[in-house]
């Protein structure tokens, strides 16, 4: 078929393969990977995008991205337009957001309320549903959600009184979700252990942001992961653990996978790069997230699991709060909004710290940030791979770009980045979304909001 765009001269990197190839695009889809210099199909005069010296990647898929996220009295500061603009500048062309019910709201209502916002996005998006409590309508709601293409369902074992689900609810939801071909994605921190640690900190007057690490011990995470793995096994359901912050937590999941379970670990960029020393710095509140940043040895141990395949995906856990919101409860992390802005920096931080600095293969990088998140969210092979038939979401990545992270050069709706001043190697230069050049040489070239809400199919399996 006639081509309308061709990316020439670059090195295509997919999860399992890399090599020199030109990428032909027609009507928003990849039509062919051809040998360099191959002629365009008869009769077409495609726009040429020069990728000489660059890597050509499938657009990043961020499996964990909170857009305009409300928690207690705080709502994070972006909307679909803002979040996806930052995403695309950073080389991510699909985000998976969360439809978290407000107190008293049904899971299905939360999905219906949020899915329309996708149309304001510069790129496509999908949704995770969320179950907090189980009642006699929940199973039917989950079926309706699956019918709308929402097949991943978020749960929490912490945040009591807000989004925490009890073990019965986790079990029943896992059973019902897996029956529809979907999967529970879960934040594991045993709430009783967290609350005890918080109480202890409170009794000593040590609740400020500088004490964040003590208020959410790693033990709470491993305890909850072990329990949830057992629940999943008891109902033969797949399970995906979000933002795992320690090698111990990842190893529990890897052991389950070796026993034949479908159990997966997500790490997020900040736990792979930043450590608890941030809490001793000038703005400790800017680094308050759950789970907290861990000791340096934990960060290194977690990072080693990127190389072995034990970590399946890398997300951002993007939450766009600004310093004023975080500082409001500077002296009490129990009331402070949790989470760090990161949708725009996910690829560059991981590439720089692990591909450029430590030799992680670029193919593995693509697997972690695009292919595996697409598979595990039922979006593959439409997303996460450059192959005929895939959506033409293409990142021209400059592997040699040296740059310094500055908030003012980023597009996230906040006044800080946790990576301020960090020198990075590697950066998205030009980004094609649905066959259109949306970012060209670092400048916004097409601001049209043509984002689509993506229905996810049955979630895939990784080895
Ligand atoms: O600190 C975090 N992660 N905040 C966002 C909510 C969550 O737990 O994912
Ligand atoms: Zn979480
Ligand atoms: Zn501050
Ligand atoms: Zn999160």
Structure description:
The longest helix is centred in the middle third of the chain and has 17 residues, at 218-234. The protein has helices at residues 80-89, 107-115, 138-147, 167-179, 191-203, 212-215, 218-234, 247-258, 269-273, 296-308, 323-327, 346-356, 362-376, and strands at 5-8, 11-13, 18-20, 22-26, 29-34, 47-50, 55-58, 60-62, 70-71, 74-75, 92-98, 124-130, 152-156, 183-187, 239-241, 263-268, 313-315, 394-404, 423-433, 436-440, 443-444. It has 13 helices and 21 strands. The model has no long low-confidence stretch (mean pLDDT 97). The two termini are 35 Å apart. The protein has 463 residues and is an alpha/beta fold. Strands 8-11-12-13-14-15-16-17 form an eight-stranded parallel sheet. It has a seven-stranded mixed sheet with strand order 3-2-7-18-19-20-21.
Topology (SSEs and partners):
Layout: E1 5-8, E2 11-13, E3 18-20, E4 22-26, E5 29-34, E6 47-50, E7 55-58, E8 60-62, E9 70-71, E10 74-75, H1 80-89, E11 92-98, H2 107-115, E12 124-130, H3 138-147, E13 152-156, H4 167-179, E14 183-187, H5 191-203, H6 212-215, H7 218-234, E15 239-241, H8 247-258, E16 263-268, H9 269-273, H10 296-308, E17 313-315, H11 323-327, H12 346-356, H13 362-376, E18 394-404, E19 423-433, E20 436-440, E21 443-444
Parallel strand pairs: 1-6, 2-7, 8-11, 11-12, 12-13, 13-14, 14-15, 15-16, 16-17
Antiparallel strand pairs: 1-4, 2-3, 4-5, 7-18, 9-10, 18-19, 19-20, 20-21
Helix pairs in contact: 4-7, 7-8
One zinc ion (ZN) binds next to loops.
């Amino acid at each position: 078929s006639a081509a309308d765009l061709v990316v020439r001269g670059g090195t295509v990197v997919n999860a399992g393969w890399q090599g020199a190839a030109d990428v032909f695009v027609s009507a928003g889809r990849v039509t062919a990977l051809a040998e360099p210099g191959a002629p365009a199909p008869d009769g077409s005069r495609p726009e040429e995008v020069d990728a000489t010296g660059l890597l050509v990647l499938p657009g990043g898929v961020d499996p964990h991205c909170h857009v305009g996220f409300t928690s207690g009295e705080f709502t994070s500061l972006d909307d679909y337009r803002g979040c996806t603009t930052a995403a695309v500048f950073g080389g991510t062309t699909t985000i998976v957001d969360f439809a978290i019910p407000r107190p008293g709201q049904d899971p299905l209502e939360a999905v219906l309320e949020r899915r329309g916002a996708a149309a304001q996005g510069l790129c496509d998006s999908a949704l995770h549903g969320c179950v907090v409590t189980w009642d006699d309508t929940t199973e039917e709601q989950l079926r309706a959600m699956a019918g709308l293409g929402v097949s991943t369902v978020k749960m929490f074992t912490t945040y009591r009184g807000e989004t925490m689900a009890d073990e019965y609810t986790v079990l029943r939801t896992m059973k019902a979700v897996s029956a529809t071909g979907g999967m529970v994605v879960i934040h594991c921190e045993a709430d009783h252990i967290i609350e005890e640690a918080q109480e202890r900190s409170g009794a000593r007057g040590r609740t400020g942001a500088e004490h964040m690490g003590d208020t959410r011990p790693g033990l709470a995470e491993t305890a909850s992961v072990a329990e949830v793995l057992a629940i999943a096994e008891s109902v033969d359901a797949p399970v995906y653990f979000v933002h795992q912050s320690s090698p111990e937590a990842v190893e529990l999941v890897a052991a389950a996978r070796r026993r034949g379970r479908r159990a997966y670990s997500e790490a997020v960029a900040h736990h792979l790069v930043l450590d608890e020393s941030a809490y001793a710095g000038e703005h400790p509140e800017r680094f308050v997230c759950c789970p907290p940043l861990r000791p340096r040895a934990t960060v290194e141990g977690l990072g080693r699991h990127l190389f072995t395949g034990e970590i399946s995906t890398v997300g951002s856990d993007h939450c766009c709060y600004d310093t004023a919101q975080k500082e409001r409860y500077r002296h009490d992390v129990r009331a402070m909004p949790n989470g760090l802005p990161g949708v725009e920096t996910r690829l560059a931080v991981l590439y720089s710290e692990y591909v450029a600095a430590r030799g992680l293969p670029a193919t593995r990088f693509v697997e972690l940030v695009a292919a595996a998140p697409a598979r595990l969210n039922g979006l593959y092979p439409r997303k996460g791979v450059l192959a005929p038939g895939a959506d033409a979401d293409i990142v021209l990545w400059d592997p040699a770009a040296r740059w310094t992270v500055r908030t003012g050069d980023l597009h996230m709706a906040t006044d800080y980045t946790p990576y301020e001043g960090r020198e990075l190697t590697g950066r998205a230069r030009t980004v094609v979304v649905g066959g259109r050049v949306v970012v060209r040489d670092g400048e916004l070239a097409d601001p049209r909001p043509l984002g689509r809400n993506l229905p996810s199919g049955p979630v895939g399996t990784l080895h």
